[in-house]
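To the team - fe (ii) ion complex, inputs and output below.
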Amino acid sequence: MVIDVHGPSCERNRSRDAGGVILGIESTAHTFSIGWVNGLGEPGKSHSAFVRPLEGGIHPREAADHHSENAGSILKKMLSEENISLKDIRAVAFSQGPGLGPCLRVGASVARSLSTKLDVPLVGVNHCVAHIEVGRERCGCDDPVLLYASGGNTQVIARLDGRYRVLGETLDIGIGNMLDKFAREQGIPFPGGPKIEKLALEWLESNPNASLKGLELPYAVQGMDLAFSGILNAALNLVANGKPLAAVCWSLQEHVFAACVEVAERAMAHAGKSELLLGGGVACNERLRSMCSIMAESRDSTSHVPIKPLCIDNGSMIATLGRLQLLWGEETKLSASGVRQDLRTDETEILWH
Ligand code: ATP
Ligand code: FE2
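Output:
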């Protein structure tokens, strides 16, 4: 395994043993995860634990406590099961933002301690950009329009002038948070998205001619932007008014995914791009994946999505981006390693190819 390190500020890496792995630590919200990539950027398995609040949304302090309680055992388990010894670790990457402050600080502290103890470079990465880069790297697409659909984020993005520019995004809540909230109101614990997908599929299987009549929801598209909170309330009302839960799950998916795909298609036309890449936890959804493929095909374009463990929050995607940043000479000094709760996708300069 060889890390081909270029860049003016990478002398420290160049003088190191070329083998080894880069660790990635993720702790932006509900998930604490440690993963890794080898010198070629090939991801290993991430080891994770996530908080599942019994009721209400995620509480930042409680999630942070969960992360600190689990960090040590996850690290140990990851190293032993992945067969990695401390001396193999060449750098430590971590999610610097955006996210919940208390949660981010746990991951940053673990990363700083490891980097200091092992005397290896520390790399702070933009979590949203990591969702994008792991897809670009693993799917081999070059210059896609991205549909980044996760819990907290729903953005349509394209790379223009060295940054990932947000061409459209949700004006209120993220699509995944909307699905999770809808599920929670029906007594389904976090994460609600997969269970909604299952119910929607069951509805379609038992009603092959299912119609949206009587299950209509508001339209989520506003220009190039999206909005989900009105749809959430309308879907909750449908259930309260006696519509079968599975039917409403199906309708909810059809409406919100169609809206995302519409904005993505317009972005592809605008930006003149012929690749679509999906990222974020909601990109695990088979219906969303197939809608994207249909849209891309109809434009003589291609649609790409990484394997599911790389769509949800995971340490390996953080390691993937950390490696790229290191290759282009971006190491994070301890003094610059503070967390950035509000870091935006377009704030990060894209130096790598
Ligand atoms: P970000 O910080 O990037 O906004 P996140 O912290 O919310 O991300 P992710 O792991 O990227 O976390 O996404 C989690 C979301 O993905 C949850 O809202 C979950 O319900 C949703 N999700 C996971 N699998 C599916 C699925 N099969 N269908 C729909 N939604 C899904
Ligand atoms: Fe995420």
